Amino acid sequence: MMINQVGQARQQPPQKWNRYGWLSTRIVIVPYTNSVQRLEFLTEQLNMHRTAAKFVPRVLTQDQKDSRVAICQELKETVKNDPTLLLNIITGDESIVYAYDPETKLQFSQWKSPGSPRPKKACMQKSKLKTTLICFFDQEGIVHWEFVPPGMTVNADFYCDVLRRLRENVWHKRPQKWRNQKFIIHHDNAPAHRSFKVSQFLAKNNMTVIPHSPYSPDLAPCDFFLFPKLKLQMKGQTFDTTEEIQKESQTVLDTIPKRDFQ
């Protein structure tokens, strides 16, 4: 027996109200208690499938969506007028690296014959021992990286010191960009990044910053490229000290080929 109220949703009063608007309801009563029968009923008779929710860091407001579109259009137009823009961008961010990060399902998968039992994996959690990595890179590779000392947080004062060390590395590693002063900084909208003190430091040193859309990790190369590549190599490994985490992180960063940054 099944009761489906979707077809009557337009005629009947809305059932529930939340911040996103009126919600209609769909009630399905499955007449089976066996899990296999319930699965067959839902998939074969109702043609339904289970879908995992897509994770988004935040539900954007309309103003934030408009800002995202405007910033992307502005950057697109700027690149069109100056094709060398992307060559001059140095992008950076912070990320936590754990002493133990469980393997992904793909990493743990094994080749099995039809009659062999399915491999089992115990539920594991990330370790409490961790360290925070700050990294900046451009199309040529890593420009600057460092680890936040234990017990410290990335506030405005600390981030200003990071930017000073970044400038020193640009001078040493990218002398042409330093001479021409053509390098452009890109970072996200973390509180330390957009603090008044950091803005003063950037203005005082004539450092140009590319705007970043709010709550948009998909537009931050560190979030969708560098850090996932780093952590994928370290998943499943166990480190006993922060020094071991930092050493392995440095090793992985050093092995990323230049072509990957391009």
Strand order of the largest sheet: 5-4-3-6-7
Shape: globular
* Content-based structural category: alpha/beta
Poorly predicted residue ranges = 1-25
Strand residue content: 5-15%
* Proportion in helices: 25-40%
Overall CATH class of the largest domain: Alpha Beta
Mean pLDDT: 80
Instruction: Fill in the CATH topology of the largest domain.
Output: Nucleotidyltransferase, domain 5
Set out the fold topology.
Layout: E1 16-18, E2 21-23, H1 35-45, H2 62-81, E3 89-98, H3 105-108, E4 130-138, E5 141-147, H4 156-173, H5 175-180, E6 184-186, H6 196-204, E7 208-210, H7 221-234, H8 242-255
Helix pairs in contact: 4-6, 7-8
Short description:
With about 260 residues, this protein is an alpha/beta fold. It has helices spanning about 35-45, 60-80, 105-110, 155-175, 175-180, 195-205, 220-235, 240-255; strands spanning about 15-20, 20-25, 90-100, 130-140, 140-145, 185, 210.
Question: Would you mind describing this structure in some detail?
Answer:
- The model is unreliable at 1-25 (pLDDT under 50).
- The chain is an alpha/beta fold.
- It folds into two domains: 1-49, no CATH class; 85-107 and 125-261, Ribonuclease H-like superfamily/Ribonuclease H (Nucleotidyltransferase, domain 5), CATH 3.30.420.10.
- Strands 5-4-3-6-7 form a five-stranded mixed β-sheet. The protein has a two-stranded antiparallel ribbon with strand order 1-2.
- The radius of gyration is 25 Å and the shape is globular.
- Helix 4 (156-173) packs parallel to helix 6 and helix 7 crosses helix 8 (242-255).
- The chain has helices spanning 35-45, 62-81, 105-108, 156-173, 175-180, 196-204, 221-234, 242-255, and strands at 16-18, 21-23, 89-98, 130-138, 141-147, 184-186, 208-210.
